Amino acid sequence: MSPVSHSTAITPATGLFLTAAFYKFVDLPDFTERKAPLLAFCEAHQVKGLILLASEGINSTIAGAPDDVHAVLAYLRQDPLLADLQHKESFSAKPPFYRMKVRLKKEIVTLGVPGISPTQMAGTYVKPQDWNALISDPDVVVVDTRNDYEVEIGTFAGAINPDIQSFSQLPDWVNQAEALQAKTGRKPKVAMFCTGGIRCEKSTALMRAQGYEEVYHLEGGILKYLETVPREDSLWQGECFVFDERVSVGHGLVPGPHQLCRCCRDPLPAGALESPLYEAGVSCPRCHAHTTEAQKNSARERQRQWEKAKASEQVHIGASHKAADVAARSARTAALLPQGAPVLYSFRRCPYAMRARLALLAAGVRCELREVALKQKPEALLQASPKGTVPVLVLPGRVIEQSLDIVLWALAQHDPESWLPLDAAMQADALQLVAQCDGDFKHHLDRYKYPNRYDLPDGLTHRAQGAAWLTALEARLAAQGFVVDRQWRWADAAIAPFVRQFARTDAAWFEAQPWLALQAWLAAFEASPAFGRVMKSYKPWQPGQGQVTFPEPE
Hints:
By secondary structure, the protein is an alpha/beta fold. The chain is built from 19 helices and 18 strands.
């Protein structure tokens, strides 16, 4: 990321992307049911970022066009439990995020201490304009609750750095910290701060639970302080690390000069670019010693695929909404979709639907795409297929309700890329592998990815069982490059979306596994033009709206 001048803040006039950060500790017993409609709404508005949901509340940073981000905030505030949701805004000239995720968690910020409730026992809020006076008091112990790599690039003058690698290590530090020990029978006053305020709320609740009576935290966190306190009055030193593509911000929330290591996801330390241990996308001086050569080779392949995809990418920011342009697009769509064209009901992120779109794209079968919001399934889908799951392909006189059947039907129409195996034995092998993927592997994937849904404390046992199948897949890929032979075929396309889901559940863990061939195969899939085309985002279909053709013409 190139440095941005600190002389002028980015505003709506000079920036394209609005970033909104927000959180709220609130009792959300139905948090699992909130995920699908919230994700669908964000994707329909082209908003990217990450939203965490847990029974204790919501925590998020999202970005997109200002109107779309405000639409998501308004959607959330329609719920009485979130009506008073507060957020912080900043603008940037580049997109801070590249995808949208909504994740279910045990905690919206992981402390790992049962019974800590910020809604009942958090410390006293201190507004940014009053913060300087508090932390200048020699009787106040000021604690930076963030991770060591965050503190490294900036903190408040005089603050204690606990030197922790994750927030869950803070309780142990509190128990041992000499500065927090009682003197003359009384525990000290404590002021705590973090990036946006969420870790402060939980850490001050921890302190109060341990008998600290005077505990304070910075309302709105460092970001609100940098937004509201003038530079000349500030006690902040350096930059504030943020968990998006801006990497860091300074006063006025202007993006800073820092860059991110794509391996460890920490900001690059000073002088890193000149270090022989730095390799773009592979390692930096901080993490070089913590990865094996096999892992570095896997990262090099991912970086190569990413650079290749970036070199061929064409980005179009904005779209014309003039009536003439809309009419012209409608006319082009109508010409591409003759009467009786297949209708595909799909959901962008569903791996079953993804494999169907990949096969239709490879076969050159053009259809009308109807993107489905899974919590608001259209009546037309339920009439065509009462089971109501995607994908569903509606043909004249026939409905195909299973993804594998859609794949094989499409390739029976046309197979220009030779996705179908060359002989019956190879096809039987492909069918058996996909059956294993859809059976045992999918079973373990679901429980690894969504342990709360299955009343599991975690998904680690199922991760290990899913990993056993991936290890067997790694052996195949290492021997021949692809799933059934030396060419990408329909079985690769059928399995890759599920492996992608598994990999993204804990990306750092997946990348640390000795699966060089599997990781390279997946990276090539995600960097392919076909993946980009099938993962284009569409708003949920509504009866009466204009037709959407899939695949769109290149």
